[in-house]
Amino acid sequence: MPQTNLSDSPGPGTRGGGGIVISARNLTKKFGDVAAVDGISFEVRAGESFGLLGPNGAGKSTTMRMIGGVSRRSSGELAIMGLDPDRYGPEVRAHLGVVPQQDNLDEELRVRDNLIVYGRYFGLPHSYLRPKADELLEFAQLTDKAKSKIDALSGGMKRRLTIARSLINEPRMLLLDEPTTGLDPQARHILWDRLFRLKESGVTLILTTHYMDEAEQLCDRLIVVDKGRIMAEGSPAALIREHSTREVLELRFGSERNASVAAELAGIGERQETLPDRVLIYADDGEAALEQVSARGLRPLTTLVRRSSLEDVFLRLTGRSLID
Length: 324
Known about the structure:
Blueprint: E1 20-31, E2 34-45, E3 49-53, H1 60-67, E4 75-80, H2 89-93, E5 96-99, H3 111-120, H4 126-139, H5 155-166, E6 173-177, H6 185-200, E7 204-209, H7 212-218, E8 221-226, E9 229-234, H8 236-243, E10 247-252, H9 258-262, E11 271-274, E12 279-283, H10 286-295, E13 302-307, H11 310-317
Parallel strand pairs: 3-7, 3-8, 5-6, 6-7
Antiparallel strand pairs: 1-2, 1-4, 8-9, 10-12, 10-13, 11-12
Helix pairs in contact: 3-4, 5-6, 8-11
């Protein structure tokens, strides 16, 4: 297929040496007096799965739009595959695949035709698009739906078709904005499998999500953003090691008793969090902590020992609402 040769395009070289495909330095986007993105800096290497994790309104989608060259930054530096997207938007977008937050499939076209017509926007010939569409439908597990109407597809099928469509130009980098919002657990896991396969083939994945389990499953590295700022950065495992314990003991005494019992748990584990519905005890050995609870004559209604997760990191850093 025809490709734009980035090495022949004017603009800055790839920053930081080989392998860095996104470089942001003090990146800012303002809407009036409101800073949706407030001076963030990060780098992404080729072949990485990189996540932007945070609540709604944190600035994740705005950052993605700047990366995609469809929203100009207010200040700072941004290079995508060595090019400034504000100056060389078409050249950058030629090598990107974009999966928007909301599916925007053409409901007037059937499934296979959605891929072919979209590919024509890139100037790709039918001789390339016909076999490529069949290949992508197989990848998305939609071969038997090729002639179906869009409104006959489930939410998970539409999402997989949107991802397949984004791959029609064989992009080097795939931007996914909240890829599994609204999907049931089975559909989410099928989609995760498709994304794992893309990463194995060398495609760089950039995704936004407010699902912590999704970030933990899919991301090699991530930044946690809130109110336009980076609150933490690293691999999911590294963030958990740095900011939490190996295990967490969850105790439920009843909503009326949790707060009053918390004082009787003092000294068990490394630290505690008292929530409206449960008490969390952070400890390297959750079972040993539970034995200490029992030794004090306390009898919770339910108990659970689990490994620490990214959610626990957020509780440690920012509280439940991700407010710094």
